[in-house]
Specification:
This protein is of the alpha/beta class. Helix content is about 30%, strand content about 25%. The longest helix has 26 residues. The chain is globular, with a radius of gyration of 19 Å.
């Protein structure tokens, strides 16, 4: 092949690679990730869940694995039924990683339009599901344009860096062996119950140790709705942003934030 042909071939390969990465990126960003800082939510938040999650045609899945042992999930199931006006909510709950890797267990996720990951202790979610078919099928929910929502511990696991992951206690911000989340919000660390538990400064040591991360602290009854490279704040509280080399600040309901440029819009 002559030099001109080699150049053309290389350009063609480069073009195909660019198209491939672009399509994969857009597919991964098709859905919505909703992180709530705890609490019971607000009507505005529920309306957003319903609108994005399929309305009365939604296929809803609840993952309560972070819950404390013996905790009653019936109120959460009934609440989700009420929000969406549906008759059925599928529940996925196991601590057995072999089961989490089974085709039968993940089947509800293959048709899910809205997945809610409840609160408790986030290390239980990490130990049960990281690297399993559950995690892969959750990513597929987003690729299809569905919604993955999490509250409290279920919000923290949505980030790439997992805070308060120590099984010994939630006070430890950085726990060796429990520092990876699902990564549905890349390059981020999410804390919750911020104003309620006076955690405004708790992400500072995490960002100091990992300066490339964006620290997102979410108040109770407040959510960030993440789509592509932006998020919107909804609810009764605020979202506190912690970044390396910058003064901490808060974003109120109705405001948007550019995740790529890392600044409010």
């Amino acid at each position: 092949m002559n030099p001109k042909g080699v150049v053309i071939l290389r350009l063609q390969v480069l073009f195909l690679l660019i198209v491939s990465f672009a399509s994969r990126g857009s597919a991964a960003n098709k859905g919505f990730v909703i992180a709530m800082g705890g609490g019971n939510g607000t009507p505005e938040i529920y309306e957003k869940w319903k609108a994005l999650g399929g309305g009365t045609n939604a296929h809803v899945v609840l993952i309560p694995t972070a819950n404390n042992p013996g905790e009653d999930i019936a109120p959460v199931v009934e609440g989700l039924k009420h929000v969406f006006g549906v008759q059925e909510v599928s529940v996925l709950d196991t601590k057995d990683r072999a089961k989490a890797n089974s085709t039968e267990f993940v089947a509800p996720l293959k048709r899910a339009t809205f997945v809610f990951i409840d609160g408790g202790r986030q290390w239980r979610l990490a130990d049960a599901y990281l690297g399993t078919r559950v995690e892969r099928e959750l990513r597929n929910v987003l690729k299809r344009g569905g919604v993955i929502a999490g509250s409290s511990a279920g919000a923290s696991i949505l980030a790439s860096y997992l805070v308060r992951g120590d099984p010994k206690g939630a006070e430890v911000m950085m726990a060796e062996g429990h520092e990876r989340g699902f990564g549905f919000i890349p390059n981020s660390a999410i804390d919750q119950h911020v104003s309620e538990r006076h955690r405004e400064r708790d992400l500072e040591p995490v960002i100091a140790a990992h300066p490339k991360l964006l620290g997102i602290g979410i108040d109770p009854n407040t959510v960030i709705v993440v789509h592509e490279d932006q998020f919107e704040v909804l609810g009764s509280g605020k979202v506190t942003i912690t970044q390396a080399g910058q003064q901490q600040y808060s974003i109120s309901s109705g405001r948007r934030f550019d995740l790529r440029k890392r600044k409010p819009l």
